[in-house]
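Pipeline run #58 for the internal structure catalog. This entry was flagged by the ingest filter as a single-chain record with no existing model, so it goes straight to prediction. Upstream metadata was stripped on purpose; only the residue string is passed forward. Reviewer on rotation: M.T. Logging verbosity set to normal.
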Amino acid sequence: MKKKLIIAASVLVILCVAVFFVVRYVFLQKNDNKPVQNPKTVVVMKVRPGNNIQSITFPAYVQASCEAVLFFRVSGPIVEVNVKPGDKIKKGTVMFKIDSRDYERKINLLKHNLASEKARFEKATLSFKRYRKLYLKAAVSKEQFDQKRSEYLVESAKISELETSIRIAGDHLKDTELKAPFDGIVTEQHLEKHEMARAGEPVLAMHDISLVEVVAFIPEDDIVNLVSAGNNKFNNTLYVSFPSIEEKKFKVKLYEWNTRANPTTRTYGVVFRVKQPAGTSVLPGMTAELIWEKRKIHKLPIFNLPVSAFVSTTSKSGKIWIVDPETQTAVSKIVGIGRYSKGACLQVTSGLELNSLVIIEGNHFLRKGAKVIIMPKTTRQKNEIF
């Protein structure tokens, strides 16, 4: 009798538990189809084709677009120094000057000699003209006429020689000033005031960084396609980023490339140019990163979504939530997924339409038909997405 009571009690407990779970399941199913009254705060992003972009990066470094080691064309002691390393200077600025007194004296001496030579030339000219008249009248011999003509030509040549010497001396006088050949920055200074400058020896160096050159070494497998990308802006874009300028990248233009590979690394040197970024200084020798974004053509649009947008994933699909803009409610979607892309994103290959509002924060506690309040993306997310 006691055993039968125990069995009956056990069966009753089991039935009660079963009924409880059945009722709970039915209750949850009903609630799942009803809109949730308390709206959930979510962050969304509007879908746009970021699709077909594949990024390849290459290490690079910065060099100045124009560099020059400057020297005097004449020799002399330095009497004036107007710049120092680090100074920004304009084209035509007098940076160094050497003592010009010897060159000024030489010009004065040549001018004095020219004046004397002109007096002798005038005398030789008058004598030549007189003998020519006499020769035409047969009053003097041809030998005498030829001698006067020769004296006239010699004096004329001496004047031309002195005038040329004066122009050369004038150039030497101008060369006592060392002027900036372009707008730039002084990088090195080899001489100080009162030191002797010798013609052809380095005095200072300067470079122009208003236009920055980025040098990258590209493997032989990529060089032809990358150079073609530099000339084809439709399907390819080339950028450069600098560690000193966080979270920014700049478009670059292909400038030149080496057609001979490095025998050791089997890479080709490629030079790109970009304007100096505003508000900062990118200096020669700094490291950089060349970013090659390749766009592939797909029959169906492909979108990049941050990983946070996915509630769950399998090898080929994932579950996301989108916002119905008319009802402001959450709607779940199963989408096809592809490979990972840059910026912690997954490619969505199917099941999603352009301009859909995908929930990327607050999506893990949603139910079908849940009311939502859309909050703006944070600064961090704006930088990470795409």
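catalog note: Residues 32-36, 379-386 have pLDDT under 50 and may be disordered.
catalog note: The longest strand covers residues 53-71.
status: ready for reviewer M.T.
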